[in-house]
Write a structure and sequence with these properties.
There is one protein chain. This protein is an all-alpha fold. The chain has a single domain, classed as TerB-like (Orthogonal Bundle). Helices cover 71% and strands 0% of the residues. It is built from 6 helices and no strands. The longest helix has 17 residues.
């Protein structure tokens, strides 16, 4: 499975997670920009903007995002989303506590074996 094969709902989860991880340290590093660019390239700029807007509307806080993520039931999509977000998180020299906590919760919730 590739990012371009994710459903709209799965893309909303991916983009919501990416926003949460990126905003955890309040900066977007150059390596993080590369990861984001790859996603935009995979799904197209128009689709990315639509998904980003949808995620911003749906997720007022981290709890809303977590509740939504629990509805994604395709294990293949879960693993792709987790791997993509993990790649973004480790694109910076240090993964901060908030990023680590969110990724640990997600791995446990989605039964991702690291």
């Amino acid at each position: 499975m590739t990012i371009s094969e994710l459903t709209h709902e799965q893309l909303v989860g991916l983009v919501g997670l990416l926003e949460a991880v990126i905003m955890a340290d309040k900066t977007v590093s150059e390596p993080e920009q590369v990861v984001l660019y790859g996603i935009v390239e995979s799904i197209g700029e128009e689709m990315y903007r639509a998904v980003l807007e949808d995620a911003d509307t749906r997720f007022a806080d981290l709890d809303a995002l977590k509740t939504f993520l629990q509805t994604i039931d395709s294990q293949e999509a879960r693993e792709l989303i987790y791997g993509t977000v993990w790649q973004e998180a480790v694109a910076t020299p240090s993964v901060n506590h908030d990023e680590s906590e969110l990724l640990s919760w997600l791995a446990s919730t989605w039964a991702i074996h690291k």
